[in-house]
Amino acid sequence: MWIYEKKLQYPVRVGKCDVRMARYLMEQYGGADGELAAALRYMNQRYAIPDKVIGVLTDISTEEFAHLEMIATMIYKLTKDASVQELEAAGLGPNYAQRDHALFYQNSAGVPWTAAYIQAKGDPLADLYEDIAAEEKARATYQWLIDMTDDVDLQDSLKFLREREIVHALRFKESVQILIEERDKKKVF
């Protein structure tokens, strides 16, 4: 189903070690509105969606996994030269004590990722409206992350991800329109 290219979807550069920003980025790694939750939500919803729009969910789910890889790369680059004291000062001491510099699916507050973040109603329109909301929440979070750093290299990657969330929301909105037109024509679902 997939062909993996050993390169990121968009280059990730950081200008400096910034453990504080790494912690904030964990929101998009393992948070409720983060990339893992989105990728799994859309992949899961594919099984209850009409064929006319199933490809949209597959495409966007796959891209969300690429975004997850970008976020992981950002976190790694922002922390790779950090001392234990810097990790502790940024609130990442517990993570270091358990995993050294390894990543773990958790949000910026340290709450572990949970499958409860995945929404699937089984109703195509309800699910697509949920997906639009998820993309808009991710867009907002990316904007706030951009606002929290003065690292122009990091901002560049975050702006790319923010723009992709906008594109995803638009594709989901198009899918809603397709399904509404289909429903109105056939009087189904």
From TrEMBL:
Query: What is the scientific name of the source organism?
Result: Paenibacillus phytohabitans
The molecule here is called Spore coat protein CotJC
- Asked if the Swiss-Prot or TrEMBL record annotates the protein with the keyword Nucleotide-binding, the reply is no
Q: Which family does it belong to?
A: Belongs to the manganese catalase family.
Keywords attached to this entry: Capsid protein, Virion
* A Pfam family recorded for this sequence: Mn_catalase
Q: Which InterPro entries match?
A: Ferritin-like, Ferritin-like_SF, Mn_catalase, Mn_catalase_dom
Determine the domain of life of the protein's source. Bacteria
Keyword Methyltransferase on this protein?
A: no
